[in-house]
Predict the structure.
Amino acid sequence: MVVEVGYARAWDLEACAPRWPISVEEARERDAAGLPYVVVYQEPGREAPLEVRLVSWLNHYVGLWIYDAHGRRTYSLDMRLLDDPSRLLRRYSVGWYYTGPEMAEFDKACPRITVDLFPDGRGQRTEERQGQGGGSHITSPRLRDDERWMDRPAFGEWPLLSSQVHGLIEPPAFEAAEVSEAAEPGDGGVPATCWRPPRAARPGPIDELFRPGVRVTDGYHPEMTVVDPHRVGTLCVPSGLLAVSGPDIDHGDGPPITVPVPPGEYVLDEARVRFNYHCEWRDAEVTSTECTAVRLLVSETPAATWEMALGPDDDPRLFIEEQIAGFDTDGATGCFADAGAWGPLIALFKRGLIQGEPDLEGYKDIDDGSMFMVRTWDATSGGELMAFATTGDGTYPVWVGRSETGDVTGVVVLLQGMPELLPERDGTPAATLAQAEPEKLSWS
């Protein structure tokens, strides 16, 4: 079997076609420089490609799409280049098992299997079943080392990884595809329909949640209006190291997320929105105010960027699309605290809230209608802890705002996800916020 191999700068997922074809020489140069490029494997006479591979060493990433004869993507493989430059981790894969030629690509009724792997041997296999019984079946994949890792081929020596899927018994004969003349990417950049390496979760317009008059929606309530932030109190951080954590989780060596700040006392406030809704049991329109985020305000200087705080075990090279890092909670509780006094502060939290020790010095319940519920303080260092209620268990990302000079301006925990901005009442589009870090991806 003859397979044509072509190269391009990008792959348009919507059009199922390459963008800006390039020669093998240019692809080789981009590979050496770490720049992204696409490899397309095509069987002559077959409309859909056999497989498409996106390589971006700058992002430690190689991605693979496999297509069936109907042009549907049937398998996605996300590989990562980590500390060993000679091999790739098969980080994340999804297989779609279409029940017939009429089933649409990614149909919700399509059975699928997802495999999530980590370099330390952990992993999870999720089989989503359809039809009678349905549901999901989750197991720990038992894979050999060579099933978790793949040797990194040199440029031009990659095998057709989908050979078995396409029923090829003998290795195919590769031929270079013809390169047609193509325009360079313009000022508009790469279209949104083009494939790119996965990105971690992005912050969204956090500042707008603290600006009265801004209109947002959470998808359930069609219109919500931001009101003045509610000041709860202050927090002393004499050590200059802020901890943001779930106080109900035993972290052993200390809090998983810390943010250096100048030693001092900082304002704690809440972002709030007001909205109307129809109350069924009262059969009337009701106005309600809810908290959307809690913030430790370090500076009045506006944040130029927001970044997701990472713990010592978080490796951005392993993040899949929209993945978050943050603190975990099993008791719907988070906290801001002085990391320098973490041990004594957490001990007071547990003695007062969990064990219910009466008249405990260094512990106080907060009953002011806010999301904050407990304050503890260490008499020796002066460090404090303020615990707040979240909207449930799970993982909550911590967003750090920075000024133009890189100084921390604030630390925010979103309690209900990021609402969507609505246009101003005069029709002005909602403001957009610059992301914390530009994508490390160059198509030029």
About this structure: The mean pLDDT is 91. The longest strand covers residues 264-279.
